[in-house]
Amino acid sequence: MSQMISSGKRNAGLFNNENRRKITWMLFLLPALIIYLTFMAGPLFDSLRLSLYTGEGYNPTKFVGLTNYIDLFTNPLWRGKFFGAVLHTCIFFAIHMIVQNSLGLLFANLLASDFKGRDVYRTIIFAPATLSVLVTGFLWTLILNPQWGAVNKILIAMDLKSLALPWLGRKELALPIIALVSSWQWVGMPTVMFLAGLMGISEELLEAARIDGASEWAIFWKIKFPLLKPVVGIVAILTFVDNFNAFDVIYAMAGAKGEPAYSADLLATLFYRTGIAGEHPVGIPNMGMGAAIATMTFIILMAGVLLWLYLSRRQSPDES
Questions:
Q1: C-alpha to C-alpha distance for 202 and 194, rounded to whole angstroms
Q2: pTM of the model
């Protein structure tokens, strides 16, 4: 009898409020976990598997181990294109960090103040982000057309014909121009995030600094910006991940080859040509090599994010 009572107590302990709460949370998380494993983790591990195989088409069957990775780093046929795509992707990311996020911080600081028509300017800044990337890229390709595009027409009308250039036809200009177009379209995203961070700063703290005689410039750099560092970190990570996966704007404005002469070729377009479109060597997809390129992209992304998290954690104790 005593054993039955003790067993009942143990069972009652298993189903107390705390355990029920844990089980409830697990049930809520289970659908998301299933979806993540099915559509994210599963394809990721399958891509790792495919990178160890070679063969024509989308289902390579010949196991070659690390040969695809060795060719990617040593074979002149692949090495130049891979490292060129890595360099172009880094430049693409750097332009977004400098232009897009700096403008986003500036716009957020201006929009955080109270002035007439503030909501209208918020809408104007965020509106391009609601457009399709392919549509935006196509429209800017028309605007930058060297013969009848609006940009060159305006420059010629202003007697600045020497500045009327084939903007997307020069190797040294194509990638920066496309990055600036992308920055223009997506500047609303960091603006919204920075604005949310600024709105969370106590107005009493800012007012106390103004009473002490601090200028708006000093208030921004000494008070606002340090308090925005967590938001800056999130924006930087999102920009890094988005830019190293960028494909559609390059495809819309420079084609799958990143014309001219692969000067705007990114990792995503290199993967597309190799594993899907089948550009090289005979127009047949090489999914094994494409998976190797995708895996290296994932490794670069993971290394960059982990490095940023490590540096941010090292700085946090000093700031506290």
A1: 15
A2: 0.85
